[in-house]
Amino acid sequence: MDRTEMSQPVTDDVILRRIERLQLNYIASIDDGPLDNWPQFFTDKCLYTVVSRDNFDRGMELGVMRFESVGMLIDRATATQHAAVFAPRIIRHVLGPAMVDDTGEGYRSRCNVVIYQTSPDGDTVLLMTATYNDLIVEQDGVLKFKEKRVIYDTHRIPDSIVYPL
Amino acid sequence: MDGTQSPDNSKTDIWSEAGTTRVPFQVYQDAEIYAEELEKIFYGASWNYVGLECEVPQAGDFRRNFIGEREVLMIRKDDGALSVVENRCAHRGAQLCQALSGNAGNAIVCPYHQWTYTLDGELTGMPFKRGINGKGGLNPDFNMRAHGLVNLRVESLNGVVFASFDHDVPGLREYLGPDMVKYFTRIFDGRGLRVVGYERQVIDCNWKLQMENLKDPYHAGILHLFLISFGLFRLDQESKCLVDDSKGHSVLMTAKGTEEGKEDTGGVRIAAPDFSLTDHDLIQPRLEFPDNVTLSIQTLFPSIIIQAQCNTLATRQVIPKGPGSHELVWTFFGFEDDDDEMKDLRLRQANLMGSAGYVTLDDAEALEFSQVGLSGSHVGDAAVLEIGGKDCESNDHLVTESLIRGFYMRYRDAMGHGKAGV
After folding, report:
1. How far lies B385's CA from each of B171, B216, B218, B382, in Å?
2. Which residue in chain B is spatially nearest to A67 when comparing CA positions?
3. ipTM associated with this complex
4. Which of A151, A159, A162, A165 to mutate to test the interface with B (most CBs of B within 10 A)?
5. Is the peptide bond before B302 cis (omega within 30 degrees of 0)?
């Protein structure tokens, strides 16, 4: 997550734009759906975690979600759409610009994210402020997340977290 | 109604009957009843969860928490014992500690005027106590001993810490009773504990609805389609619902793998989707206690829940935030002697629980549906609790609301809301 001695800031605009495009497509799969598209942004073996900053700062890995394979992501997407019972809602991610480093094993991308939630009655609340700490690799010419760690500040969650973040 | 209540028990008549098969919707939304609950239950003769001993290992360590709406600090003292004091300066009432946890050194100092207290809450000094050049300051007759922090009674049981504002409350073991101590120490068996992590969420419904939900095995086999789809929980599994003598505490337990054939749901089809997991690692538990129980939920009056679902263990503390809201604080824990595999299992199975949990996400949503629904009710409207009959006894099946009826027996007693005997 930190810049290592080996890592170099990425200045190539083409790569930066491709990474930005990946992030925007990723959030669109959650905000606009279909959620079935969400797992495809990850490599088969991957790590997706959503951890509060409170836990993170204490060195605790416990997350509200923790998935270690595309299979687990597919299961979450399926369960969310077909098994979970919840009030309908709209999710909206707003991303800040990313700082990207080339580590040799992939691109480390870090950006701020703000996530809002809108109820069926039309009230919008701030669900959380967070950062994405990602490791992005190129697989068959396509950029994918090998790791996506969502570290969220808002560790007093309003009600529940239904959709992935 | 019993005619012997004291004059302040004006709410007795909201209960339409002696038993608890009807719970008036007012108890979930009336501000006066809520204020009475804080005084009589949370600040009264009850033991309230304040944390785990392992959260404050070193002298001076503190952790901030709530009992009712009052903030308290659980503190490790120099001699290794624990103290719990109210997080409020005896001078002008300022909040003393703002961080959720930390180390106070050897004294608690108010940030406002630096009034200084021992870790037990005794007032030891303040700046300019005698003024400057004999002018100002406190009068010499000011009684330092009478102006300490509010000090709570503290007891811990196998590493779990409880406190009470009432120094005359019976001891913790007596309060819990032998049956509840037995199931409590099934999980908290004396091994060293470690915190795996925390989750906090604010759910907009009355705190009692959260407690009811964990005393309601009936909903679990219907609402939680995830559990049903994967056979983690079925209402026909070998099970036990145990109520203590006071009726306020309970434990429910089920054993996966004991169900036979197809569940008989009484002709009503439960709309559970038929799908299987792509990655089964999520729900591959390892039995870790000396029985075949795969789910146990213990609820202790007034507001703490101890969950053991497969290998995900947690305390869930219910903190009231006004009549229509509460905070749920999850402390996921394991044991000091957990091996690496068990550490992984606890992290992975935590997907089932918490604010985004496969199981508990449904609960938080359904509880808010309840509060929204009942907030439009008329005086006299009440919840109907007759699943499994009218009594509050222990059962060897799950299709019952007897644990909830028991909770309200204890509740009525604590509130002085008439005699709740059936």
Report:
1. 32, 10, 11, 9
2. B348
3. 0.95
4. A159
5. yes
Q: Which two tokens stand for residue A121?
A: 């009655």
- Structure pTM? 0.94
Q: How far apart are CA B323 and CA B383, in angstroms?
A: 17
According to DSSP, the β-strands at A156-158 and B193-203 are parallel
Alpha-carbon distance B47 to B302, whole Å?
8
Pairing of β B101-103 and β B108-109: unpaired
Give B282's contacts in chain A (Cβ within 8 Å): 72, 75
Q: What is the pLDDT of residues A16-44, one digit of tens each?
A: 999 999 999 999 999 999 999 999 999 99
DSSP state at residue B58: S
Q: What is the mean pLDDT of residues B375-383?
A: 90
Q: Report whether B330 contacts B353 (CB < 8 A).
A: yes
For residue A96, what is the DSSP state? P
Q: Do B199 and A157 touch (CB under 8 A)?
A: yes
Match 């595309």 to its residue by tokens. A70
Residues of chain A with a CB closer than 8 angstroms to some CB in chain B: 50-52, 54-55, 58, 60-69, 71-72, 74-75, 78-79, 82-87, 155-162
String of DSSP letters for B332-361:
EEEETT--HHHHHHHHHHGGGSSTT-TTHH
CB contact under 8 A, A66 and B351: yes
Measured CA to CA, the distance from residue B357 to residue B223 in angstroms comes to: 14
Distances B39 to A86, B64, B68, B254, B415 between C-alpha atoms, Å: 34, 20, 9, 36, 9
Please name which of B224, B208, B292 lies closest in space to residue B253, comparing C-alpha atoms: B292
Minimal-distance CA residue of chain B relative to A79: B226
- Tokens in use for B308? 């053991």
pLDDT in tens, B233-259: 777 888 899 999 999 999 999 887 777
> How would residue B280 be classed by pLDDT, with cut points 50, 70 and 90?
confident
Cα separation, B135 vs A69, in Å, equals 72
Give the H/E segment covering residue A78: helix A70-82
Q: Tell me if B126 sits within 8 A of B116, measured CB to CB.
A: yes
Name every chain A residue with its beta carbon within 8 A of the beta carbon of B357. 64
DSSP state of B376: T
d(CA A49, CA A70): 13
Region of residue A132 (phi > 0: left; psi between -120 and 50: alpha; otherwise: beta): beta
Taking contacts as CB-CB distances below 8 angstroms, the residues of chain A near B226 are 79, 83-84
Q: Quick one: which H or E segment has residue B116?
A: strand B116-117
